[in-house]
Structures are given as structure tokens and as C-alpha cells.
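Late entry, written up from scratch paper. The run itself happened at the end of the previous shift, but nothing got recorded in the book at the time, so transcribing now.
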Amino acid sequence: MKEVTHMAINYQTYKCPACCDTGWIIRQMSAAEAYGPAMADWPDVDVAAPCPHCGGKPALHSDCGFPKEFSEADISRFRWEEYDVDTQRIQQIANTFWQNYSAWSMEGMGLYIWSKTRGSGKTFLACCLGQSIREKYHVSVKFTTSVDYLATVTESYREENRGRDESQVYRECELLILDDLGAENRSQKNNWTDKEFFRLLGGRFSQGKVTVITSNMPIQSLNIDDRISSRINAKSIIVQLPEISVRQMQAEEKKKKFVNRLMNI
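Output as recorded:
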């Protein structure tokens, strides 16, 4: 029987391991304490209580690194109807990804979400999925852009930061969202960037860790080493979003409502 070694989930990434950063724990109390003296003959019950270790303060979504505008993201907030085209297949993939995440984790399989159109919802969808998985499975989720990741790695090489590598968290977290792959300045493209992306993605794939990648181009158009693109292709289900700028549509709707509101004053 083949031994599976990549299924262990690292719970030590939580700031409060007692409540997994939710701010709540389950504790047992008497029915009388929970419901009043009239229930004294009832058996003890389990109730949710503020975590005594962290003061009952859940970790902010920003701990994941999500962009501020997506800090309240979860899959229930993603409006598929905005596309006005058939997205049934994409919805099915997205739903099974967060609802059956343990099966995806077992295979070390992630998503490659792309479309050429900026504002089509790639980053928002990735954050919605990441937050929904974080809340349901209590796994460590981290978000970074490809540009920010390279900048973090660069900082770790500075003399004053020797021995402190803040990029390590992206290599070790259970679920990584790597946003906007391919957006790096072409002048940055060299053996070093390929080496660092291979260290990040090759390492995660070999350990069976799940990665969600967003991009404005298909995998074959990425200007990266073939070893990296082939591994992305092998460990990702491709999701191409409709070439519709939901961001632009929403912006136009907001401006229209703003003008109408002023005209009715």
C-alpha cells in the first residue's frame, strides 16, 4: 500500500491553538447552569464560550493577507449572476473545491483561475474560496501576490534580516493563494525569479500542499521555467472565468446610482 505523507495539516500556524483563531471554544456545563434550575435533572451540555486563552477575539481575515476590499469575502458573497453567461461548470468546480476540500487536499490538487480581462473576479473568487475553507476546515490560509512574494524573499536575503525569513510561511501554509502570477516586471525575469518560484511551487507540490493561482494568462503563456509551468498544470484544475469585467460593471452601476441620488435631492 502506498504511504500518503502529505495529509498532515499544520495546526501550529494558529495564533491561538486552543480555539484555532475562532475566538470560541466548546466547554461542558450543567444543564441547570445553561438553561436554569428547572433543567437540573438534565444531563450536562456542550456550549460555545469565549476562548479564555485569547480573550475570545477571533483572528482578523487580514491575518491571511487578503486585500482589504476582500476582508469579508466568502463564497456566499460571490455573485455568479453578474456574468450573465452560463457559469454552471465553473460553479460546480468552485463548490466542490471548498465543500470537499479534504479530497482535494488528499490529492494535493489546486486551482488555476485565469482570464485575460482585468476585474473579472479572479482574485475575489480565490479569496472567497480561501476564507470559506478556512472557516470550515480550520486550516492555515495565506494570500500573496507574485510580486509581493518576490519582494518578501528579497528582504529575507538582506544582512539585517539574516535568520528571519518571512517568506517561509507561504511555503508551509496548508492553502496558499498566489495572486496575479505572470504580472512580474519582465526585467525581473531571470534565473533567480525562476529559482524562487520553483522553490515555492515545486516545494508545495512535492509536499502535497494545495495552491490556488490566479493569472491574466493561460499556463502555457507564463514566462517561467517549463519545470514550473508543467507542475502547475499537473497540480491544478484550470478555471477560465468569463471575459467580462465585473469590476467595471459594478463601478458603472455605483456611478449611475450616485448621479441619480444627487439629481433627486
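The two ends are 73 Å apart (CA to CA).
(Scratch paper discarded after transcription.)
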